[in-house]
Amino acid sequence: MNRVANELIYGGHFLALGTSSIAASSAILLGKSPTLPLLLMAYLFSYGAYMLNRGSEFDQDSVSNPSRTNHLQGRSKFLTVISAISFGLGYIIAFFSNLIFFAALLVPIALALAYSVGSKKMKGLIGATRLKEKLLVKNLAISFGWSLIPVLVGLYYKSLPLLLLSFGPFIFFRLMSNTIFFDVRDVRADSKYGVRTVPVVYGKTRAFSIMNAFDIASAIYVGILVLLAFFPLYTLIMCVLPMYSVVYRLASLRPKSNMDYLCDVVADGEYLLWGPVLFVGKIL
What digits encode the pLDDT tens for the residues 1-52? Predict the structure, then answer.
């Protein structure tokens, strides 16, 4: 059972399933029932991006998350191939969905490559060869990429109302909070490898203040759009997600807190809640 749990968490499946859950929540907001091809594509593209990132940061991971490195050790040489297969399968399914959706999926792949692999040409644009090496650019890139999920879901269903587009900023705020929390866990490895993150540059206390600000912003954003009758009343249930974030951050402040567990299970576990939480809110 322990091997299954480790594969689920360290193998990237947990996070990929969370991406499917966010895609499901976008479909629910659109008034659609999430389809199996949509959920599978969300899983494959997220899993592909995860494998690409793990392959490009294997040495750094040995410092920040040795448990994950040990688990992936046997497949370390094949992570890029696994990533390519995942993206390829996702693209095949997308091709048989619709061509506009198929073309739009180039954006998240480009972001994944710029984030994990990068290019020397990027150095002249942002001062770093990879997006993750620039202060806050890493967090912005990840958050922006995930905030595109409602757009992609809308293109999949050939319906892109303003309601769905407005779901993107909420996702962006949630991801900014989450990615900075992971930076707190990875601060030792990031410092060693010269990766400038918020906790590396400004310290843990200020990083927590910034996370609090994004949590508050995400809750206020939903509240305002509900008050304006733009978001349906049931979307207020999504405000439990910022509260969830605050709870696990408080847990991280306790002596001898297990940051690997809080990041890889609890924090990433938030994404799995999105679809079920919004579904429950809609039927209540």
Answer: 588 888 989 999 999 999 999 999 999 999 999 999 999 999 999 999 999 8
Alpha-carbon distance values, 142 to 10, 97, 154, 180, 224 (Å)? 19, 25, 20, 11, 25
Number of domains in the chain: 1
Asked if residue 264 lies in contact with residue 68, where contact means CB atoms within 8 angstroms, the answer is yes
- Residue 88 · residue 49 · CB < 8 Å: no
Q: Is the distance from CB of 194 to CB of 201 less than 8 angstroms?
A: no
CATH number of 46's domain: 1.10.600.10
More confident of the two residues 41 and 142: 41
Alpha-carbon Rg of the chain, whole angstroms? Answer: 18
129: phi then psi, degrees, rounded to nearest 5: -80, -20
Nearest Cα neighbor of 178 from 238, 248, 109, 276 is: 248
d(CA 93, CA 163): 26
Query: What is the distance between the alpha carbons of residues 36 and 242, in angstroms, rounded to a whole number?
Result: 28
Record the tokens describing residue 257, joined without a space: 């807190």
Rounded-to-integer distance, Cα 156 and Cα 159, Å: 8
Our CA angle for 98, 40, 172, nearest 5°, is 85
